[in-house]
Amino acid sequence: MNDVIVIGGGLAGCATAYYLAQDGVSVTVLERSELNTQASGSNAGSLHAQIPHDPFVNKGPAWAATFAPTIGLLRRSIDLWRGLSETLGEPLEVALKGGLLVATDAAQMAAIEAKARVERGQGLDVRLLGRDDVHALAPYLSDAIVGGAFCPDEGKANPLAATLAYARAAQALGARFERHVEVTGLARERDGFAVATTRGVLRVRRVVNAAGASAGDIAALLGVPLDVQGFAIQVAVTERTAPLIPHLVYSAGDKLTLKQNGAGSVLIGGGWPARWHRRGHPSTDPDSLSRNMAVALAAVPALAPLQVVRTWAAVVNGTDDWKPILGEVPGVPGFFVNFFPWMGFTAGPAVARIVASLVQGAPAPFDIDLSPFLLASR
User: Fold this and answer.
1) What is the phi/psi pair of residue 107, to 5°?
2) Are strands 275-276 and 155-156 parallel, antiparallel or unpaired?
3) CA distance 146 to 169
4) Going residue by residue through the chain (378 aa), what tens digit of pLDDT does each one get?
5) Other Cβ atoms within 10 Å of 114 Cβ, number
6) 8 A C-beta contact, residue 237 and residue 128
7) Counting Cβ atoms within 10 Å, is residue 283 exposed (0-12), middle (13-18) or buried (19+)?
8) By the 8 A CB rule, do 33 and 179 touch?
9) For a designed S-S bond to 122, which of 71, 89, 240, 264 qualifies (C-beta 3.0 to 4.6 A apart)?
10) Do residues 313 and 236 make contact, with C-beta atoms less than 8 angstroms apart?
11) Is 299 strand, coil or helix?
């Protein structure tokens, strides 16, 4: 009998498998296609620590208060990202040069200031900048920018490299990976679970549901309701150019994430919606692309001469409250969930380490209150 089966070959699944294997646990990862082909490999590689500005403004103070503890998870995960290339023995292009949320008017600045008070209450280093300060820090910004907030702990990593590096490191420690295997059924047994797949039935003591946007479908196989969703969004990348933007840039006025990778290309996103193709996969929406580029140009006019060379759409994992869903499912001992919505790329290392510990009945390795995220307390 297998000890642990992890369902899902994205960052959450591969990182959880690595930490389990590191602890000497026998683990097998089941992936229905190829590793890193969904949200983990299709995002823009941003490493976030700040509260997302759009829901802060639109959902209000009560939402911000419930979301705020998530900052601790993000901070601890970024700490792991700092040394992750060395830990896994592969270059992951981690660069933490800071995140910059910018405003074009007083109302936006007031919202930034209110958000910064919540973030500082969680121990996050957030520095408010006036017009002169923001332009001294980031001279590439438009003259229309009147101020902003700078978080030095934010940055970027390579989403094409991280998951696969975790998988290779896990495999070197004895973890098994089964690709092109779909889970079709789950049933509780006296000493574990029967996992029905397209290659037969596997018996296992514990299961980790790390299936991303499909986590709800996997949980439903055991009759467990899990309110998770998948949203189609898109990203664009420009031709290469000389070093221009060292920071992760956000806009308080509209959806925007903007950064330059090591090759010199500028990645432009921010959660703009993509379309659903009639065949069921996401596809780029030209209207969203146009609006996204307009927001980017308004923040950084020097982008104007650059050509967009590629766009892509992907499904991002989400929940209505933006809070992660972690831990053992009440009433279903041995069945664990690793689901971090919207910013799962950032949170992946820390959350995987936490879930791997919980699976073993061990305390979480970080000095952080997990109760807001555990299924038992939701």
Assistant:
1) -65, -40
2) unpaired
3) 46
4) 679 999 999 999 999 999 999 999 999 999 999 998 888 877 889 999 999 999 999 999 899 999 999 999 999 999 999 999 999 999 999 999 999 999 999 999 999 999 999 999 999 999 999 999 999 999 999 999 999 999 999 999 999 999 999 999 999 999 999 999 999 999 999 889 999 999 999 999 999 999 999 999 999 999 999 989 888 999 999 999 999 999 999 999 999 999 999 899 999 999 899 998 888 788 999 999 999 999 999 999 999 999 999 999 988 888 888 989 999 999 999 999 999 999 999 999 999 999 999 999 998 888 888 888 887 655
5) 13
6) no
7) middle
8) yes
9) 71
10) no
11) helix
Determine contact, residues 256/296, Cβ cutoff 8 Å: yes
Phi (first) and psi of residue 255, to 5 degrees: -70, 125
Q: Which two tokens stand for residue 162?
A: 């991280």
β-strand partners of 326: 338, 374
Closest CA to 20 of 33, 35, 34, 5: 5
> All domains of the chain, ordered by start, with CATH?
2-41+160-228+321-377 (3.50.50.60), 96-154+230-318 (3.30.9.10)
60: left (phi over 0), alpha (psi -120 to 50) or beta: left
Backbone angles phi, psi at 8, to 5 degrees: 120, 125
Residue 233 carries which DSSP code? E
